[in-house]
Amino acid sequence: MTFSPLTPELVVAFEGIVGPAHVLTAQRTEALQYETYGRDHTEDFHFAPDVVLRPGTTEEVSAIMRLCHEHRVPVTARGAGTGLSGGALPIHNGVVLSMERFNKILNIDERNLQVTTEPGVVTEALQNAVKEVGLFYPPDPASKGSCFLGGNLSQSSGGPKAVKYGTTRDYVLNLQVVLPNGDIIWTGANTLKYATGYNLTQLMVGSEGTLGIITRVVFRLLHYPQHNILMLVPFRQEAQAAEAVSAVFRAGIIPSGMEFMEREAIAWSSDYLKIPLTLPEDITAHLLIELDGQDLDQLYKEAEQVYGVLEKYDVGEILLADTAGQKDDLWKIRRNIGNSVRYNSVYKEEDTVVPRAELPTLLKGVKEIGQRYGFKSVCYGHAGDGNLHVNIIRGELTDEQWNVGLRQPISEIFQLCVKLGGTISGEHGIGLVQKPFMHIALAEANLNLMRGIKQVFDPHGILNPGKIF
Amino acid sequence: MTFSPLTPELVVAFEGIVGPAHVLTAQRTEALQYETYGRDHTEDFHFAPDVVLRPGTTEEVSAIMRLCHEHRVPVTARGAGTGLSGGALPIHNGVVLSMERFNKILNIDERNLQVTTEPGVVTEALQNAVKEVGLFYPPDPASKGSCFLGGNLSQSSGGPKAVKYGTTRDYVLNLQVVLPNGDIIWTGANTLKYATGYNLTQLMVGSEGTLGIITRVVFRLLHYPQHNILMLVPFRQEAQAAEAVSAVFRAGIIPSGMEFMEREAIAWSSDYLKIPLTLPEDITAHLLIELDGQDLDQLYKEAEQVYGVLEKYDVGEILLADTAGQKDDLWKIRRNIGNSVRYNSVYKEEDTVVPRAELPTLLKGVKEIGQRYGFKSVCYGHAGDGNLHVNIIRGELTDEQWNVGLRQPISEIFQLCVKLGGTISGEHGIGLVQKPFMHIALAEANLNLMRGIKQVFDPHGILNPGKIF
């Protein structure tokens, strides 16, 4: 794929579309601000865009795409830049299309339990807005306080509540999308059921900005669960924590959160946040278990059942969060593990996922591979979904070890995932950094189908080039 | 698209692949049996296959597809033939690929709450098998006693429980698929989360046998809900029944069934089944409401809330089903409405779907259009999903009226659906009979994307030609 350079004429044309204030170039933008548009939260990568555009309407996006399609200019859409696979990095330069001005919630439809929103709304802002009328938008990636809904859709994001409520994919009903040639479509209908041709809505979810630009979203909503119970369960043996996860589900309970945290994950995060937490010497891992629902008595019954399951394991003293403040603190600790690891060291995050009951085998394998290749990892994640985030710490590794040497052990981790019935990404996407490993999870025939689909949507290959495959 | 005729050499080659006993032709098969392979449950259509093949393994399917791909022979996959949109009709003749021998449940994985199965298993047989170990596969189309899982996947089937538990789409984790060129792929992984490139699994669901042949399926399962409460609620005004549907959801209750039945729907079905049912003169419609869960006390609480909502409407005496037998009877009546209508008259079934709260407007519109164009309709369906099955009764309509005259009013019904945020099929698919109406729901740009995707999977257009678009 060869692209055309960005010409001064094109910059003028962009100014005509979005207004000069929303056309940012390196020459006329404060350096630190401009640099942000070339980064996301993936390792320490940076790629400079030729120009950053901040459209405000679907029609502006359409006009931009039409021009770029015609002139073969790469376009990388960008949400809040919190991605962990490099999906928003403009590796072929060109246009970064920042969706930050698509920040309006358009309609909360209480009659139909739906919301129509722009994609540049922060996930938590949507959650708060619908909560005000008693409604619930469950998907809650760790970055929910800053990430955008559009990014969640592009990466098929999950979060702790996915274990009970499903991921972003399970809430989207309909998408307005600008295709690379500038055409504006709606992918489906605002209905709970849909059997009207190929499901373009579901195809867009997880397509990482390579097929079209999402400009509007219709999500379904639930009623906000009135009550919850949160417990932090310390384990003396890591493997037992992983085993207890599937035991809880096999007892017929579906927690609204089932998070696994290695000792170091929880220790680093509580230090980073300066939230004190007692961590006895012999504790090697924790489960953070949340139950939620409309009826508190019912939740207490379920909590007793959970206790019954946990009794069979070698657990320390279970902390049952008493107050809203204590609950917030525990979730804050869980959500800031990634930040605290980043604060301690450059790291690579692998988003491994396996069938739930295979988690102990995966965890054991990761540690064994780490030992063999001499790297340290901090593991945590959405254990109820079999989704383990493996953070490989740079520490004292040389450039050579870091950039080249880790290829083989990471491949082995992914091969283990696939052998266990899993895959190489559960909720972060492939983006740039997992691309070299796609052949481990997918046959050449699968990749060819994906390339073919890409070609149908984007014949000139201008949208987020160089990602996924 | 031009296809090649079936040659005697090809028939011999097929015999070599599946064995002569599983190659059926009109010449050597009992007429009534052979004719079955040219029909489904859609109106009174019949198209004769040139040959019917009954493969027993994935490798046999692959070998058949490779041959047909090479020789440009149309292939129409067939499940149990219970489809309502003509999806399994071999309108270009050629091969009918009957999946009836793919009837084995391969592995119920209690540790991971998953099941691996062949697609020719009857839906209810799967439900019963997993129920024996306390597990639950929720999707339950009306034809669950005879339809195949593969058909459910192809049409994105729902059923009454979809309102709480989602449709077939929400349970499939991974599919083994034979592509038109004979390649065998798995579309994803056996995991609850998946962000590893374009979601081919979800693309296959609802693709109506036009992209590939499903040969194995991995579904996720739930724990079987121990208890349920079922109530039949008679309404004096049809519109109020439709209104009460969204009122129940807005009260924060999620029933496991929320079915709407016009007076005639329920009367015809109870007559057909010879299950007596008291139907006072002034009753025009019913809601069948089911609540389910693990805790009976909790269900009684919810039932009280439902009664509280219903009090606001002009309802007759609510029948609370006392025994398992009574519950079975009520569900049997609901599930046999389609059969009873078919028993009374040839009919066209429209699978309209709108956002839930728009149901009263849709129902009113359907009746108004019927009055204007002089046809009678019997309406019923999954009201909780906004999914209304409109059965247009042939009655005394002439061939001209039936075949041509109904185009315009059906178009108007679908236009109303789309205006209300809905679409032209919720769970039956497009197949043959809804194809002429696709442009009402979808823009040309959408249809072009679908055609492009079809071309990627099936460059010679041999799989189920003439369907969807």
Description:
- The structure is a homodimer of 469-residue chains.
- With 469 residues, chain A is of the alpha+beta class.
- Chain A has four domains: 8-101, Uridine Diphospho-n-acetylenolpyruvylglucosamine Reductase, domain 2, CATH 3.30.43; 105-223, Uridine Diphospho-n-acetylenolpyruvylglucosamine Reductase, domain 3, CATH 3.30.465.10; 227-338, Alpha-Beta Plaits (2-Layer Sandwich), CATH 3.30.70; 345-450, Alpha-Beta Plaits.
- Helix content of chain A is 36%, strand content 19%.
- The first copy, chain A, has 17 helices and 18 strands.
- In chain A, the strands form four sheets. A seven-stranded antiparallel beta sheet of chain A has the order 15-12-14-13-17-18-16, with helices on both faces. A five-stranded antiparallel beta sheet of chain A has the order 5-6-10-8-9.
- In chain A, strand 8 and strand 9 (184-186) form a beta hairpin.
- In chain A, helix 13 runs antiparallel to helix 15 (407-419).
- The longest helix of chain A is centred in the middle third of the chain and has 15 residues, at 296-310.
- The first copy, chain A, is globular and about 70 Å long.
- In chain A, 55% of the residues are buried.
- The mean pLDDT of chain A is 96.
- At the A-B interface, helix 7, strand 11, helix 8 and helix 17 of A face helix 7, strand 11, helix 8 and helix 17 of B.
- Chains A, B: GO terms for molecular function: FAD binding; oxidoreductase activity.
- Chains A, B: It comes from Hymenobacter setariae.
- Chains A, B: Pfam families: FAD-oxidase_C, FAD_binding_4.
- Chains A, B: This is FAD-binding protein.
- Chains A, B: Residues 45-224 form the FAD-binding PCMH-type domain.
